[in-house]
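Sanity check

After download, print the first record. It should look like this:
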Amino acid sequence: MKKNYFIVLYFSLAFWPCLLGVVATSCSGDHARISEFHYVDESYDWGLGPLIDFVGIHSVDEVSDTTARLTWEGHQRAETYFIYVREGELAAWEVVEAVTKNHTSYVVQGLHPDSTYSFMVKALNDQGVMDPNHKFMTIHTNLAPNAPRSVTLKFPKSPVMNMGFAREPIFTVGGVKPGETVRLFKNDHTCAEAAEFGSAVVAEDQTAVEITSNDLDLSVDRYTFFANTTNTAGHTSPCSIAFATYYTVACPDDSYVSVESNAELGTTAFCVM
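Expected structure tokens:
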């Protein structure tokens, strides 16, 4: 009994200064250091390193049939942002991409049309500690792709056509996705099949495509070109609001002159009115 009593008394006497808040060598153990470390900055988590009070994903917009754009507010302590995706409600979360700290948005690609997806963004600091947020947002992808965003004339540089020069102008259609089939239509804002004037498939990693129109008729004074796009599942977008206009100019047979043009065009016959 006496031995046990002595041991209890010894430890009590050894640690009583800590209980009273007196500075002592015996108080500088691990618990004291962790406590100081924690209160230096509230975002420190008991020796794991500085946590990030990152609030997570901010919005999901620009949703199409196969893509969605995620945005978030950058955090000064973040080194990497991880993009998580979950299809449906029961599937496991998957990391689809990790982006550097200078990013505040990311476009997720390869989604399925007419499907439900949830998205989450988490931040990692320079000590390898992940932020604790679990905020996510859920969207439903479209069945058909969005309409092309732009239709512009690439060649010739001028929107005026003359005989012998550019009866088959080249147009660039933008705001489309890889694998889609983009069609060009003349003088029809509804993109009716009978008005189709050319088509092309968007190459991998591209968001625009070039389409050469068929042989134009000089009897038509002006052409207006619209476009739509069809995804790999066979669903077609509305006709584009954007359009490009191309004017025709009929020249008398004896009014052509050959002139030296720039290196891209070479020697070309122009109509002189």
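If your output differs, re-run the checksum step. Summary of this record's structure: Residues 1-48 have pLDDT under 50 and may be disordered.
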